[in-house]
Amino acid sequence: MNEAQSLLAGGRFLESLGEYEHCIVEEPSYAAAWDGMAQTYESLGEFNKADRCRESANKIRAMIV
Question: How many CB atoms neighbour CB 64 within 10 A?
């Protein structure tokens, strides 16, 4: 997760996506990784994908509460 955030901060969006995806493969219910993917997709201008990732994060959080 830290690597993904660093890559995102450095503008290396595609590499960041790969790291977030790796987090999600390892733990699909990791809402923070879904949020990170959403932020990365926004940076790439892919707002529909960003919205879907945020929806996933919100669903996960709703299930936990």
Answer: 8
